[in-house]
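dumping this here before i forget
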Amino acid sequence: MYRLIVCLVLVGWGITLQAQEARQLLDKSAEAMGKPADLRKLQILHYESKGIFFANDKKLNVILKHWYEFHDRSRVESTVFFDKQQSTTTVCINGGLGWLRNDKMPPRALTNDEIIDSSLDLYANWAVLMQINNERFVDLEKLADLKVQDTDCFGIRITRRSWGTTDLYFAKSDNLVRACRYESKIFGRKVSREIHFRSYKEFSGLKLSTEQDWYENSKLKTTITEIKYDFPEKLDPTLFEIPKE
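structure:
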């Protein structure tokens, strides 16, 4: 019994030290991205990106528009161009509500399960933007080192109650995030997501990625070639309201 107690104490001590190391590394990464006052700008964020969407062996131009307000409100508009035509899909999360709209079809409310599924992406984004540091009920774990885009990285696993798990990998050279891994769902279908980040530039005191590769189940789905960021003090509430038409 004595040996068992000693072993349990040592294991617990090791886990605590590992969590402390992960916290220190995460704090360094937040500092690399920006000062605390600048990081708070990311709580309300608008950005637009351009890139290539890979579908059925075709490369399609895509424009994405994102609006985020904290971790429970978002609107994403995706416009894909093909054969001189274009198709726009809008997905919106507004707290415990949400809606979906394809082109000019009437919008429909998301089911509770669809809202939960879509929120998994929101939570991962919240972690990437270094906003998880101020959250409660967060567990941190140091991961094995990994090479991402030929860059040596250290890894941190972030787990928050009801949010699932997000693995972040940061370059040892500058402490900026280079990869994000997490489990998500697309309308009930489970997918493993991985995002690679590169080409960092400074925006209003923040170092942010301007080029990204998005993978689903290890397959490249989207390459982002350009991102422009904006940091409004507040967003128009009507952005998140379901259209009446």
